[in-house]
Amino acid sequence: MNGPLVEPGSVLGVLGGGQLGAMFAQAATRLDYRVAVWDPDPDAPAHHLAAYSFPSPFTDQKTFTEFAGLVAVVTYEWENVPAVLCERLERTTPVRPASSVLRRIQNRLVQKTFLAGQGFPVPRFAALTEPGRLAEILDQLGYPAVCKTATAGYDGKGQWKIDEPSSVFSVRDSLTASCHSTMEWIVESFVPFERELSVLVARGIDGQTIVYPLVENVHEAGILRMTVVPAEVPSTVVERSADLARAVVARMDGIGLFCLELFLLPDHRVLFNEVAPRPHNSGHYTLDACNVSQFEQQVRAVTGLPPQEVLLTNPAAMVNLIGEDAETVKRDVECRRLLGLPGAYVHDYGKRAIRPRRKMGHVTFLAHDVQTARDRASRLRQSLLQASRN
Ligand code: AMP
Q1: Does residue 156 have a pLDDT over 90?
Q2: Three-class secondary structure assignment of 75-121
Q3: Which of 49, 73, 105 is the last residue of a domain?
Q4: Which end of the chain is more exposed for a tag (fewer CB within 10 A), N or C?
Q5: Ligand 1 mean position to 222 CA, how many Å?
């Protein structure tokens, strides 16, 4: 039994106050809910949109008592919030997705072991608990490979690509330098993917599931730069990805909004890269190109409303504004021209400090056809790159 509908007017608790939490708060407000944001960073954007804001450490007992007493349901905007906090909250309040789902996802080794154990396709991988055993593991797994911290890595942080045996020792030394006693890593075969894809899945408390269109993603240095929707791949790939994504979320008994990242192989098989138990950067197109955004689906799922059928109103392409890009789009002539085109939607996350790999905002281009949307996004991307070199 997953509990009754959370009545409008109730307070929804969100752990984490970044742009995803802020967009969740906007969607919740539109559906007549109030939001309590708990994020230790007082500058986190969602604090400004929250009815109740808790800028205190996740270990703060006073905040725990106040927050737990206030909220009708709890969700989170990223997977690195403490699972133990979710478990404590869950004793009195529904947490959606459940802490058991978070536990399964937030450690990459646990996640991949679960997916592989359930028969879902994933890259070959092995566990590493001792940096000194890296060479031995790579002898079995082969080259090239990627070594990732099992926990707390995101946007390519805590990842090392290992192309050949001669680079094993420098990576081993980096692992040793960053190591603490309980540290572990996942070593994966490097997948020679043709494209990267992702798909959003909304699943309600009664198991009703909605799958969004498949999208294509372009990453650079481990960080998402561009998303194009719909992905230009054969319909068999679209159908198989949707079926797999729906099955993964059901097998986890996930309630909420999930994003599943996939690699498309040259022979058109797909492998899972990662499952996110929350809205995702590659789903920001849903704000402008769909009848219902990923954030509204998150609100609907966690409050017990049924997920809504999705209509993609236009093909779209999204470009992330990272670090200095946020300033460049305001002054570069070509960027300004592109942002002035009909169908260009600019989102500024309102973050004060610009830092090199920080996501500052994004732009979505809607068009009548996917090629036009892709071209506009590519031109913006090129202009941003050009400006960053000058
Ligand atoms: P992750 O943080 O695991 O999503 O990785 C960030 C990005 O690194 C992915 O989107 C891929 O571009 C790349 N990557 C991660 N794992 C692999 C892999 N096993 N093979 C090839 N590329 C990978």
Answers
A1: no
A2: EECCCCCCHHHHHHHHCCCCECCCHHHHHHHHCHHHHHHHHHHCCCC
A3: 105
A4: N
A5: 6
101-131 per-position pLDDT tens digit: 999 999 999 999 999 999 999 999 999 999 9
What atom of ligand 1 comes closest to residue 191's alpha carbon?
A: 20
Same domain, 128 and 78: no
Same domain (yes/no): 184, 239 = no
Residue-level pLDDT at 1: 40
Among protein residues, the one whose CA lies closest to atom 1 of ligand 1: 156
Residues in the ligand 1 pocket, defined by CB under 6 Å: 123, 146, 148, 156, 188, 190-191, 196, 219, 222, 261, 273-274
Question: Are both 251 and 377 inside the same structural domain?
Answer: yes
Among residues 19, 61, 60, 69, the alpha carbon closest in space to that of 40 is found at 60
- Distance (angstroms) between ligand 1 centre and the Cα of 57 equals 30
Q: Which of 115, 146, 265 to mutate to test the pocket of ligand 1 (most atoms within 8 A of CB)?
A: 146
What residues make up the domain containing 30? 11-105
Give the Cα separation of 179 and 362 in Å (integer). 34
DSSP 8-state assignment for residue 165: G
- CATH number, residue 154: 3.30.1490.20
Dist. CA 258 → ligand 1 center (Å)? 18
Residues 166 and 47 in one domain: no
CB 75 within 8 A of CB 256: yes
Task: Give the Å distance between the CA of 273 and the centre of ligand 1.
Answer: 7
Beta-sheet pairing, 125-128 with 359-366: unpaired
